[in-house]
# Entry
Amino acid sequence: MVFVVISLSLVLLFLSLPIFLVFGIGSSVVATQGLDLPWSTLIQIAFGAVTKQVLLAIPLFVFAGLVMLRSGVARRLVDFAMALVGHWPGGLGVAMVITMGFFAAFCGSILAAITAVGAIMMPQMLRKGYSAPFTVALAAAAGLLEALIPPSNAAIIYSALTGVPVSDTFAAGVFPGLTLLVILILVVIVRCRHMERETRASLSHRISTFREALPGLLTPVIILGGIYSGLLTPSETAAVASVWAIFLGFTIHRELTFGGLWQSLQGTAVTTAVIFSIIAMATFLSVVLTYTQAPQKLTTFFIEYGVTPIMFLFMVGAICLILGTFVEIVPVFYLTVPVFMAIAMSLEVPLTHLYIVFTAFAGLGLLTPPVCVGLYTASSVINLSADRAFGSAMLFVGVGIVYAVMMIFLPGLATWLPAALR
# Structure
């Protein structure tokens, strides 16, 4: 049954059907025709999946990020980053990576982060002589920071699937996210060391840009402080972040308009509909897996053949890398996490470590054709054909694979902080 589901889903995928239909049609046909399950059971399970309280944080964090985008926060973060590192080798590229890291700390949407920061930084980089394909690939690669640095939609979805507290998955992404940030900065410095440098900013300019960016920089403090102080749940924290974003836009920066607020609501509705339709349809696959006992059989197979935790994580990474080439990170999670979670627990692999390995490998799909949504989004910002950036993207794919392998051998980066904060 599982083989039939996978085969049918692959056929539908190559027919270019939307991902939620690939999940829904393939799994529902097998569930209703092969396993004789009634439609009412599938609908009830799908409804239960999309009404989990933890998932309420996704649209709220997306909304907060989109409001921040229209409140001038991204521009102020760029100015601050430029004042700090603009004079470094490849300073504009380094500033874009750092700004992406800042923006990741309060925005729940990878594509929104690429658009917000890229629209400001990428034209500047082109004017200074940076290669357009390299600029696009760098923006797409930096978008992976959004999947690691909290708050992250990937972390929320992983928690909904595994039962791991969101506070733990958020904490698990901090050090791996910062590690990736440093690696990307080093790549830019080496790759762009011959580029013309910007003038070093004066101390007074750095202070003034910091003052302007401070309200935005306080957002992660509000988000993470509310969660780890125990005062707020992730959903409540996301609601507070949304209110703070509106207050910041209307009162502090005074750049948010009612038209911009309406556009943010529309963008949130579209993004939420896409994510939740995938979640609803992906539960059909989980029904097939449950009734066929595929996770239990795979667990027995792995144990009987003496697979070690490292071997298991490499297999997980290879599967996520292949799947991430064809589908986005959310459906990859719903395809793989329910199966591999049971195996990880039997092999005593911490679920927070598994989360980072999943995200690191599956997130490379932002750069790998044919889907490569990160590359297409970054290309659209400067009206460049995405295929022109494929060559430069391979550099970051290679860097990303090295980084993901590092995460396999350095579990402490993912497990230490969650344990320390308990």
